[in-house]
């Protein structure tokens, strides 16, 4: 079972909703996935340095808008050390509304699910209008 964590810069309801939909898909798909909210699993404001090793030890994937995980030297080294898969959503300059983010995640969910099969660590970035690019 692969665990995907949605960072707290997204509403936890997105993680809960995706998990409900994915449970239905898990009945027929080879790669089983569970979706969690970092905020609900590790607490509001949990430091990246706290949850990155924990999610990495589970061979998990995180979906976030926080590009600092890629650009901050010690966080970058930490996610690589613990074998974390990271998918960054780069929001438009005005940011994402709740419904924009729902649309982005649903539209890209098949691509995200294909990423769970990749060797970790990995990092991809996705702009509002564009494809995933490997970082």
Verbal overview:
This protein is an alpha/beta fold. It contains six helices and six strands. The chain has helices at residues 12-26, 38-42, 48-57, 68-71, 73-81, 98-115; strands at residues 2-6, 33-37, 61-64, 85-90, 122-127, 132-134. Strands 2-1-3-4-5-6 form a six-stranded mixed beta sheet. Strand 4, helix 6 (98-115) and strand 5 form a beta-alpha-beta unit. Helix 3 (48-57) packs parallel to helix 5.
Model regions low in confidence, pLDDT < 50 over at least 5 residues: none
C-alpha geometry: globular
Report the strand count: 6
Helical stretch count? 6
What pattern of helices and strands is seen along the backbone?
EHEHHEHHEHEE
Number of domains: 1
Helix content: 40-55%
CATH names the topology as: Rossmann fold
* Neighbour order of strands in the largest sheet: 2-1-3-4-5-6
Strand percentage: 15-25%
Radius of gyration: 14 Å
Distance between the termini: 25 Å
What's this, in brief?
This protein is α/β, with parallel strands linked by helices and 135 residues long. It has helices spanning 12-26, 38-42, 48-57, 68-71, 73-81, 98-115; strands at 2-6, 33-37, 61-64, 85-90, 122-127, 132-134. It is globular, with a radius of gyration of 14 Å.
Supply the key terms.
135 residues; alpha/beta; Rossmann fold; 6-stranded mixed beta sheet; 6 helices; 6 strands
List the helices and strands and how they pair.
Layout: E1 2-6, H1 12-26, E2 33-37, H2 38-42, H3 48-57, E3 61-64, H4 68-71, H5 73-81, E4 85-90, H6 98-115, E5 122-127, E6 132-134
Parallel strand pairs: 1-2, 1-3, 3-4, 4-5
Antiparallel strand pairs: 5-6
Helix pairs in contact: 3-5
